[in-house]
Design goal:
There is one protein chain. By secondary structure, this protein is of the alpha/beta class. Among the domains are: 325-531, P-loop containing nucleotide triphosphate hydrolases (Rossmann fold), CATH 3.40.50.300; 560-653, Helix Hairpins (Orthogonal Bundle), CATH 1.10.287. It is built from 19 helices and 18 strands. It has helices spanning 40-48, 82-87, 91-108, 115-133, 139-149, 166-180, 196-207, 220-226, 245-280, 287-299, 365-372, 408-415, 421-430, 447-458, 477-489, 501-504, 526-546, 559-605, 614-653; strands at residues 2-11, 14-24, 29-33, 55-59, 66-69, 184-188, 212-216, 229-234, 237-241, 325-336, 339-350, 354-358, 380-385, 391-394, 465-469, 493-497, 510-515, 518-522. It is flat and about 120 Å long. Residues 2-260, 327-541 form the ABC transporter domain. Belongs to the ABC transporter superfamily. ABCF family. YbiT subfamily. Residues 537-563 are annotated as: Disordered. This is Probable ATP-binding protein YbiT. GO terms for molecular function: ATP binding; ATP hydrolysis activity; DNA binding.
Length: 654
C-alpha cells in the first residue's frame, strides 16, 4: 500500500497542494484529473520522488517499486538501438546472466570433489532459479510483444533511437516502463503520441496490469476504459470518487449542486448577520450580540464555488461557401529517399465533409494532410483545390513559428485586427490564457502553451476548410469541450488527425483510414469505424479459413475486393509469422542437438562401469548440469515463440 500523508506544496504565492492525503491500494487503476495548473503532474512527481513537498510524506513498503513516465518521455541513449534501449530496463537480469556464465566457467576449472565445487554448484542452481523466476528466459519475446503493441515493427528493433521523433521516443520510454512492471505505475499523458491501434493495445495491457496504475490523461474514453477510481484535484484539495471518469463527472455534478446550495444558504446567513451588525453596531444594549456575530463571521469557513463552473463558448468566423469539391488528389506519389509513402493516392473531399484521419503512426497521415494543405511537395500526380476554398492548417510544430518577442495578446490581435478585445480574451480564456497571462511574451511560454496559442490564433482566421494535426494534445478537458462544440457548429469542411475518440465521435461524419499502401473511407464516426474494423478482421479470418467466395458474407464486397482482402490477409499473416519462424527454426535445431547429447550422457551414466573413471564422471556431470540449464532456457524461449505462432495461426484460421 502507498500512502500520501498531508502533502502540501507552494509555488511562489500559489499553494498548489493543501494537506493532500490518500491511500493507493494494490491493483487499483486511478485517473488523476483536474484543470490545467491544478497540480496533477506535480503530484505524480512527488509520488515518484522527483519533487520534495513542503510538508507531508509518501510511505510505501520496502519491496514496492515506483515507475514514472513524464509527459515528454525520457531521452534514450543515442548510441543504442530501440531493442537495446528497452533492454536496459533489465540490467539486473543481464548482470545475473553474466554471473551465471562466470560461475559455469569457474566450475569447469575446480576440483569436482572439493567442498568448494559443491558450494559453487549450489550457488549456480540458486542463480539459475532466480533467473527463471525473473522471467529472463522469456525476456526477448516480452520486449518484442510490447514494442509491437506500441507500434514498432520487427524492422525497427535494430534501428538507432536517433532515427525516431519525440513521439516515438516517448513510446520507447513507455515500453521500458511497462516491461519493468513496477508496483505503482505513474503515467502522465501517456496517450499523446499513440495512434488508435496502439492506444487500444495499451488499454488492454493496463486493464490486465497486476500493479496499481495512476494516470493523468485528457482522453475520457481511455480513462473510462481503464480506471476504477478517480482522484480529482480541486484548488489544492484531493477529492476521491469510487468509479471511472464518467462516474466522477456525474458525482461531481451532484457535489457542485450541493455546494451551490450550501453557498447560497451561507451567503444568505452572511447577509442577515451583517445586516444585524450594521443595524445595532452603536446600540449599547446590543453590543454583546453584535460582537458575537462579528466573531461568528470571522470564524466562518467561507464556501467557494468551483471556478470552472462557468460555461465558455465561441464560434468560428462564418465561412464563405466553397465549391462542391473542396480538394482533389489524383495519383499522388510521395517518397522520402527510398521510402515510398504514397504510390498512387487519389482522394476527394466534398463540401461539408467532417473527416477524422486515423491509422498507425508512420503510415503517412500527417504527410497526407500537409500535401492537402499545400505545405508539402510531392513527387507525382495532381493536387486540385476546389472553387473559393480558403484553408487554415494547425500542427504542433507551428508553435515554433510564433514571434518570440510578441505577447500572447499581440499574436491574437495580429490575426484578427478588427476583433473586439473581449472576443480575443474569451478565446484565449478557452485555451487557458487568463488574466495577465495574455501579456506574457511568447519566449517564456512552455511548448504546450505555444501550441495552444497557435491553435487559438488559427481559430480567428476566416476559412472554409480547416485542417488539424493532433489539436487536442495540450488541451485540458474543458478546452477540448469548447473546441469540440465550436466544430459541431462549424458550417465548413474539416479534416482532423487525432487518436482522441471521445473528441472525434460527436463531430465527424467520415473516417479516412490511412495504412501503408492503402486508404479506406468509412461513412460514420470513429466508434462506427472501430466496429467495422473488428468486423473486417473477423471476416478476413473467416475467409482465410474457408476460402469462401460468397460475397454476401463479406458485407457486399465485390469478388475483386474479396480477392484483394484475401491477399492482404495472407500478406499480413506472412509478415507476422516470418520473423517468428526465422527465430524458432534455429532454436528447434539447438534443442534437438542438446537433447541428443543429454540422452547420450544419460545412457553413459546408466552403464555399470561409468563411475570407475573419476575424471569422466566430473566432466560429464558438469556438462550434464550445464545442458539441463541451457535446455530450460531454450525450451522457455521456444514455448513463447510457439505460443505466439499458434495464436497467429488461430487468429487467421478461426
Amino acid at each position: 500500500m502507498l500512502s500520501l500523508n498531508n502533502i502540501s506544496l507552494t509555488f511562489g504565492d500559489q499553494q498548489l497542494l493543501k494537506g493532500v492525503s490518500t491511500l493507493i491500494n494494490p491493483g487499483e487503476r486511478i485517473g488523476l484529473v483536474g484543470p490545467n495548473g491544478a497540480g496533477k503532474s506535480t503530484l505524480l512527481k512527488i509520488i515518484a520522488g522527483h519533487i520534495k513537498p513542503d510538508e507531508g510524506s509518501i510511505n510505501t513498503s520496502r519491496e514496492a517499486t515506483i515507475g514514472y513516465l513524464p509527459q515528454d518521455g525520457v531521452e534514450p541513449d543515442p548510441g543504442c538501438s530501440v531493442y537495446e534501449e528497452v533492454e536496459r530496463a533489465f540490467q539486473e537480469i543481464r548482470e545475473l546472466e553474466k554471473r551465471v556464465r562466470q560461475q559455469q566457467q569457474q566450475l569447469g576449472a575446480m576440483d569436482k570433489e572439493s567442498p568448494e565445487y559443491r558450494k559453487a554448484l549450489e550457488q549456480l542452481g540458486t542463480m539459475q532459479n532466480k533467473l527463471e523466476q525473473s522471467g529472463a528466459y522469456t525476456l526477448r519475446s516480452n520486449i518484442e510483444k510490447v514494442l509491437m503493441g506500441l507500434g514498432f515493427g520487427p524492422e525497427d528493433f535494430n534501428r538507432s533511437t536517433t532515427e525516431f521523433s519525440g513521439g516515438w521516443l516517448m513510446r520507447i520510454a513507455l515500453a521500458k516502463l511497462l516491461l519493468q512492471r513496477p508496483t505503482y505505475l505513474l503515467l502522465d499523458e501517456p496517450t499523446n503520441h499513440l495512434d488508435i491501434e496502439s492506444l487500444r493495445w495499451m488499454e488492454q495491457f493496463l486493464t490486465n496490469y497486476e500493479g496499481a496504475v495512476i494516470i493523468v490523461s485528457h482522453d475520457k474514453a481511455f480513462l473510462n476504459t481503464i480506471t476504477n477510481r478517480t482522484l480529482a484535484l480541486d484548488r489544492g484539495a484531493l477529492l476521491d470518487y469510487a468509479g471511472n471518469y464518467s462516474y466522477y463527472r456525474e458525482k461531481d455534478k451532484e457535489r457542485q449542486e450541493h455546494l451551490r446550495k450550501a453557498y447560497e444558504n451561507q451567503q444568505k446567513e452572511i447577509r442577515e448577520t451583517q445586516e444585524f451588525i450594521d443595524r445595532f453596531r452603536y446600540k449599547a444594549s446590543k453590543a454583546k450580540q453584535v460582537q458575537s456575530r462579528i466573531k461568528k463571521l470571522e470564524k466562518m469557513d467561507k464556501i467557494e464555488l468551483d471556478e470552472h463552473e462557468e460555461e465558455i463558448s465561441f464560434q468560428f468566423p462564418p465561412p464563405e461557401r466553397s465549391g462542391a469539391v473542396v480538394m482533389k488528389l489524383e495519383n499522388v506519389h510521395k517518397q522520402y529517399d527510398s521510402n515510398v509513402v504514397f504510390g498512387n493516392l487519389s482522394y476527394a473531399i466534398d463540401r461539408g465533409d467532417k473527416i477524422a484521419v486515423v491509422g498507425p503512426n508512420g503510415a503517412g497521415k500527417s504527410t497526407m494532410i500537409r500535401i492537402i494543405a499545400g505545405l508539402e511537395d510531392f513527387d507525382g500526380g495532381n493536387r486540385e483545390p476546389g472553387h473559393n476554398v480558403t484553408a487554415s492548417y494547425f500542427a504542433q510544430h507551428q508553435a515554433d513559428e510564433l514571434d518570440l518577442d510578441s505577447t500572447v495578446f499581440d499574436i491574437m490581435r495580429e490575426a484578427a485586427p478588427k476583433a473586439k478585445e473581449t472576443r480575443l480574451r474569451t478565446i484565449l480564456g478557452c485555451f487557458l490564457f487568463q488574466g495577465d497571462d495574455v501579456f506574457k511574451k511568447v519566449s517564456v511560454l512552455s511548448g504546450g502553451e505555444k501550441s495552444r496559442l497557435a491553435l487559438a490564433r488559427m481559430l480567428l482566421m476566416p476559412a472554409n476548410f480547416l485542417i488539424f494535426d493532433e489539436p487536442t494534445n495540450h488541451l485540458d478537458m474543458q478546452s477540448k469541450k469548447i473546441l469540440q462544440q465550436a466544430l459541431e457548429q462549424y458550417e465548413g469542411t474539416f479534416m482532423i488527425v487525432s487518436h482522441d475518440r471521445d473528441f472525434l465521435d460527436p463531430i465527424v461524419n467520415k473516417v479516412l483510414e490511412v495504412r501503408p499502401d492503402t486508404t479506406n473511407t468509412f461513412l460514420g464516426n470513429v466508434s462506427y469505424y472501430l466496429e467495422k474494423v473488428e468486423e473486417r478482421e473477423k471476416n478476413r479470418a473467416e475467409q482465410s479459413s474457408s476460402g469462401s467466395s460468397d460475397s454476401g458474407k463479406n458485407n457486399g464486397l465485390s469478388r475483386k475486393e474479396e480477392r484483394r482482402l484475401e491477399a492482404q490477409i495472407r500478406q499480413k499473416k506472412y509478415r507476422q509469422l516470418k520473423p517468428l519462424k526465422r527465430k524458432i527454426d534455429p532454436i528447434e535445431e539447438s534443442i534437438e542437438q542438446k537433447e541428443a547429447r543429454k540422452n547420450e550422457i544419460e545412457e553413459m551414466m546408466a552403464q555399470p562401469d561409468f563411475y570407475d573413471d573419476e575424471e569422466q564422471v566430473k566432466d560429464l556431470s558438469l556438462e550434464y548440469e550445464k545442458l539441463k540449464g541451457e535446455l530450460v532456457e531454450i525450451y522457455a524461449e521456444w514455448e513463447e515463440l510457439a505460443m505466439e505462432i499458434s495464436e497467429i495461426e488461430e487468429k487467421f484460421s478461426s
